[in-house]
Amino acid sequence: MSKLKQMTVFMYVVKLGSITKAAEQLDVSKSVVSQHLKQLESELAVTLLKRTTRKQSLTSAGEHFYQQCCTMHELAEQAWQDAQKLQLTPQGLIKITAPHALMDHLVLPALHEVFHVYPDVELELISHDGRSDLMQEGIDIAIRVGESKMSNLKQKRIGDFRDVLCGSVETINNHQTDIAALKLADNTNTNTDAGKQVNSLAKIPYVANHWQEKSIHHRFSSKKSRSNKLSTPRFELNFKTHHKANTLPTCLSMLEQGFGVGIIPDFIFAKHNNALAELLPEHQLDKVNVYALHAYQAAVPISVTMAIEAIAKRLG
């Protein structure tokens, strides 16, 4: 570090023509400038500058060294400006990971909306339902469902969604009797009857996403009571996985074709509600929180900030 400082001091002395002017430019004393020059020539064992009380001139070695010092200074200034530019205009590579359910329907549209006018931005997207190591894999942003316990990461809640338990219109119509009976039991608080209908509905074949277990537990509350959470009646539907798909599109297709019932996020269900119907349209599952995580501790790149804000807006 001291070498670079000495080279900078030497460059300013030559460029400005005197130790006094260099000291003023660098906002240090003349003695400090003189000391740096002395140490520089001593360490190099070369005379760079011939000086008298009124005049200074470069030696041949000094002329060559001065040109290299100017090049070093220009590179340093350019590096500084380029780094600052990254905080003003998004550019470069952004590596983002998100669950399969969120990538195509949420993250991709948000990123296109915000970055399609910035051609210098490069996206590397990874659909992954697991928990990637952001530092080891060089990931800038991870979009995750549920809060992370990683203390070395910055995380921000950016919104929420609800899963919808649904199936094909034909599948749901085939169970309208049980659904109507459950609705009646719910309205009359007949717990025994409600329990019978819940057990009946739970016999419908269940189409599970690959991350779900063999035993499926869904807890519902009435949409009518959502304004008063303390008094919201709740019940559970417990299923056994009958079919399983390793991707969300496959799971969605199986639901549409009548293989059974399963859950998909509400923002995806809204796009397929002509082919799909809710099993329990007057009840709802709990909200699922979505978080954005990154490993930046100080200044966050503007591209990362813009991406997170765009995804949050889309989710909202």
**Named CATH topology of the largest domain:** D-Maltodextrin-Binding Protein, domain 2
Proportion in β-strands: 25-35%
Alpha plus pi helix count: 12
Mean pLDDT: 87
CATH architecture label of the largest domain = 3-Layer(aba) Sandwich
- Write down the secondary-structure element order: HHHEEHEHEHEEHHHEEEHEHEEEH
Structural class: alpha+beta
Question: How many strands, which pairing sense, and closed or not: the largest β-sheet?
Answer: 7 strands, mixed
Q: How many domains would you count in the coordinates?
A: 3
Write up what this structure looks like.
By secondary structure, the protein is of the alpha+beta class. It folds into 3 domains: 84 residues, Arc Repressor Mutant, subunit A (Orthogonal Bundle), CATH 1.10.10.10; 95 residues, D-Maltodextrin-Binding Protein, domain 2 (3-Layer(aba) Sandwich), CATH 3.40.190; 127 residues, D-Maltodextrin-Binding Protein, domain 2 (3-Layer(aba) Sandwich), CATH 3.40.190.290. It is built from 12 helices and 13 strands. Strands 3, 4, 5, 6, 10, 11 and 13 form a 7-stranded mixed sheet that branches. Strands 7-9-8-12 form a 4-stranded mixed sheet. Helix 1 crosses helix 2, helix 5 packs across helix 12 and helix 8 runs antiparallel to helix 9. It is rod-shaped, with a radius of gyration of 33 Å. The two termini are 49 Å apart. About 2% of the residues have low confidence.
